Amino acid sequence: MTQPLKILDTILGEGSSKICIPLISETMDELLQEAEEIRLLHPDLVEWRADHLKCLSPDIIGAICGRLYEIFFPIPVIFTLRTNLEGGSFFYDSVFYENALLAAAESQRVQLIDVEALTGQSFKMNLIRELKKRSVFTIASYHNFAETQSKEALLEKWKLLDDSGADILKLAVMPETAEDVKRLMEVTKLYSQKTNKPLISMSMGETGRISRIHSEAFGSCVTFASGKAASAPGQISIQELRSYFS
Questions:
Q1: Predicted confidence band at 246 (pLDDT cuts at 50, 70, 90)?
Q2: In the 8-state DSSP scheme, what is residue 5?
Q3: Cα(219)–Cα(193) distance, rounded to whole angstroms?
Q4: Rounded mean pLDDT, 32-51
Q5: Which CATH number goes with the domain that contains 42?
Q6: pLDDT band at residue 86, thresholds of 50, 70 and 90?
Q7: Strand order in 199-203's β-sheet?
Q8: Looking at the domain assignment, is residue 8 inside a domain?
């Protein structure tokens, strides 16, 4: 049974699903301006998609994490560097990837770090362990932009994410039919009874919109909304999403 997890003033896995907005700007100045605008929307969490930034280094990551902390505290910030192999914009380099995530953790100014855990699985599992030593919460995620697999395959993905040792598990898949969306929701609800970790789950694209709106009903503790622009297919604006929640 999922246990609530408190991160700053936000409690995941208790009450309604929390709304997270991604930051996706390409320059530091644009990113900080975007952050100031999104702060006024009062999300429950924000996610810095660092792979969108054109000029990236461990030093820049540390500096930006510090500025985002100043802007958003006490709203938790997720650091995510999604690679081109995982649906993101960063061309994968394992050494840089590791150094980037460690720099974010060592800044002590982001509260969560997302790791796409099932690509390069052994490397990612070791990285999650190193991140946890630095007193940051970790999200083990799996994204499939091509399909929604069978019930058995999805349950296996949840179990592999769980075995990573991360604090939060995230699964996002692409549906072709409403039946695909229903299957993801059912599997998420089922796995929420098997783990004590908070789950984040969504069916992407237009077909999967209902999973973002009714996330709480099937055990997803976070739903992602667009601020400046969507960072994944099917994201809904925070204003529209809140209209469904009210």
A1: low
A2: E
A3: 9
A4: 96
A5: 3.20.20.70
A6: confident
A7: 199-203, 168-173, 137-144, 112-116, 77-80, 45-49, 18-23, 222-226, 236-237
A8: no
User: Does residue 153 fall inside a structural domain?
Assistant: yes
Q: Is residue 4 part of a domain?
A: no
- Residues 123 and 86: beta-carbon distance below 8 Å: no
Is 3 within the bounds of a domain?
A: no
| Mean pLDDT lowest among 69-78, 99-108, 117-126 | 117-126
* Residue 188 domain boundaries: 17-238
Which carries the bigger pLDDT value, residue 230 or residue 125?
125
Strand partners, 112: 78, 137
Amino acid found at 243: S
Least confident of 153-157, 190-194, 225-229: 225-229
The residues annotated as belonging to the active site are: 143, 170
53-76 in b/e form (b: 16+ CB < 10 A) is beebebeebbebbeebbeebeebb
Instruction: Record the pTM.
Output: 0.95
pLDDT of residue 168: 98
